[in-house]
Design a protein that fits this description.
676 residues; alpha/beta; 21 strands
Length: 676
Amino acid sequence: MKKWVAKSCDVNVVNMLVKETTINPLCASVITARGVTSKDTAVNFIQPCEIESPLSMVDMSKAIDVLNHHIDIGSKICIFGDYDCDGITSTAMLKTYLEFLGANVFTYIPERSEGYGMNINAIDKINEQGANLIITVDNGISAHNEAEYIYSLGMQLIVTDHHQPSETLPRAEAIVNPHRKDCPSKFKNLCGAGVVFKLIMALEGNDYNSVLEQFGDLVAIATIGDVVEISGENRKLVHDGLQYIKDSDRIGILALSEVANIDLETIDSTKVAFGIVPRINASGRFGSPKTALALLTSEDESDALKLAQQLCDLNNQRKSTEDKIMQEIALQIESNPKILNERVLIFSGNNFHHGVIGIVASRICEKYDKPCFVISNEEESSSRGSARGIGSFSIFKCLEYCSSVLERFGGHQGAGGFSLKTENLQEFTKLILQYADDTFNIMPRTSFNIDKVISPNEITLENIKGLSILEPFGEGNKEPTFAIMHCKLLEVLPLANNTSVKFKVQYQGKYLDILCFRKSSEEIFLRKNSMCDFLVKLSINFFKGRESITIMAIDYRMSGVNQAKFFSALDIYERFSLGKDISKTCYEKITPSYDDLKLVYSYIARLKITDTETLFLTINKDSMNYCKLRLCVDIFYELGLLKFDVTNQAVTIVSVDNKVDLNGSSILRRLKDYGE
């Protein structure tokens, strides 16, 4: 279960906005819930801000002078990129522009097997090609040893990056990074391609429109793909860049849209995030990032189509491999269900494909609502991994805390990568859990912000179209989320070979269809004719010239949950399961009586198969908190009275021939002993 947080909305402000602007009531409610209090703040919220002069960034002038000098004297310049979407697009932008200036330029993007960022072997190869200057894009801020090696070989270095710097900076002619403590620029959240865009702007004499015309499509794709906040300058870059994707004349983008069946005329940030970005990333995950770079810089339609097809094939391979790792982790959970009670989830396996472990970490993080580290043991003595965080749990700070056992690490608040010796895995796990205990009394959890509890009369084509002025959506400016509360579930229908479902509901006297992707009907434990709540997104579907409304569920639950009590009880359950101290008062509240056990067992028998959350909400008694219910389930599972699918928290009764003594449960004995 995820937290749902309903935002307050000032009706007077909504009415004022509807009266004094062209904003419709639904859109006015959304932006008011997001903090708009006046007409002026509404305009500022909707209209993208202007781009600050790139020369406001520290070392930008130095970088321009050094680059121009090397171009003028015909030096050989190497652009050192990264193998993800941000790094590949950054490389494509700078390569194309420097070639336009007549520079003698070549590129080096490390294969994923080399690891993130610069490495000594790569520098040797670059040196062998006669480079005089290396300029990094989307990396380099932590390459202290590599920077010294570059200078020992007689080359120079410019760093452009957006990742968090450490206390000391690497040696370089210029380091352009908005996160530098001494950088006076106002906007800090650019992605790597955003920094490169501003570098090119500086080279172009601060001509934003000229650079936008050349690279607006690529900087928009990178900004969306790197999941940086779509606010401030990023909102401007994505807003303007999407227009250049719609009218794209870039051969690589046109080829990719054709092969992947992406309609560029209706392109938006969501379609970029799920259609274009994964295919660019696939080249760095399963093939070579050179494939995507070649596509984005291609000038031949036939070659571009072949490259685009390769990216689509690699993306399909990525999905298959991702699912296999998820299945292996599910087996690990099944063999040791207590893993899920840890405050941070840590999984490792032999030769997990390093190209997808970050995606797997994201999926596990989303499924179980906990920070997640996924580690691949790739050689006898070497491991590397990827991590994803939740809320205020900073992956970067956690990795810093564990740095004594890490070979390399990098990242930011929500995500990071690392490598270490396999022999240090146990100590690394200990440090991660220690960081969580030292930093958080109660672990942060995922929250869904509700922009509005919507009525069926507000779900109209006109209202939904009016939300488009809030685009582009992304991190920091999420697509509006609406709550449909206390509706009657009539039916759950499987769709697309039961890979998705459709909920048919009755809501305030009207009938609605709500779609839910990546869920089979067997995974839906909501009961027919029960009262349910849905968090949804609304969109317009275009098919054969006709418009229709799509209601998409992003979360759902039975009605009537008291969130504060639920999450408090869940925290106590996890603490007890891990053997941590809890108060005697808590023991009194969570220790089940014989009547409690009998009640829970009878409900499981009646429902036949259900999940623990739905079971809890179905019982709906003040005497039954969620911790007590989970302990009842654990006791029955321990005694062999039920099956428990821990990955889905699903319970089913098991038929037994002999009478079972509840006092045989070690869990129940422990509860009673501690309580006494």
